[in-house]
Design a protein that fits this description.
Layout: H1 6-17, H2 37-43, H3 49-53, E1 59-62, E2 65-68, H4 79-83, E3 96-98, H5 104-110, H6 112-116, E4 122-123, E5 131-132, E6 152-154
Antiparallel strand pairs: 1-2, 3-6, 4-5
GO molecular function: 4 iron, 4 sulfur cluster binding; metal ion binding
Keywords: 4Fe-4S, Iron, Iron-sulfur, Metal-binding
Protein name: 4Fe-4S ferredoxin-type domain-containing protein
């Protein structure tokens, strides 16, 4: 049997009484249409093509990977996604969703989102909320800032 050591017992008591602090996650805002972080880091080959393609210089390299430096400068033109050969930036899965913040009666008069859609992917029928045609929508997000009610989001 081992000899009793009060210091060891005190150590274990302190460890069980102090809540464990989670390891802080470093979170960066990735360029538009970036996959989930784990998949993005796996697929990105760190070539920098997205940075070169960005006409507004909204993307920079941080720790070897592209990061969106300021969303105010990003105009969702898709140039970075088109330049990405590794498919770390993938527009094929992006969809615009309409929340309940957009009421059917309001949508019939507003139509701001529809007016901003260059792909004609938004249909608004009388008495209904906007419907997004996923076949036509390219995921650019131009409709999102047009909505005064923040009813649109890109997922």
């Amino acid at each position: 049997m081992t000899k009793f050591d009060p210091n060891r017992r005190a150590l274990f008591r302190r460890l069980t009484q102090v809540p464990a602090q989670p390891v802080p996650e470093i979170s960066y805002r990735r360029p538009p249409h970036a996959k989930e972080e784990v998949h993005f880091l796996h697929d990105c080959n760190q070539c920098g093509d997205c940075i070169q393609a960005c006409p507004t210089n909204a993307i920079a390299m941080v720790e070897g990977f592209p990061v969106l430096t300021s969303s105010a400068h990003c105009d969702s033109c898709l140039a970075c996604s088109m330049a990405c050969k590794s498919n770390a930036l993938d527009t094929s899965q992006m969809q615009v969703r309409v929340s309940s913040a957009c009421s059917a009666s309001l949508a019939a008069y507003c139509q701001s989102c529809k007016e901003q859609c260059s792909q004609d992917a938004i249909a608004i029928e009388s008495g209904h909320r906007p419907e997004i045609n996923s076949e036509q929508c390219n995921g650019c997000g131009a409709c999102i800032p047009a909505c005064d009610f923040n009813a649109l989001s890109l997922h």
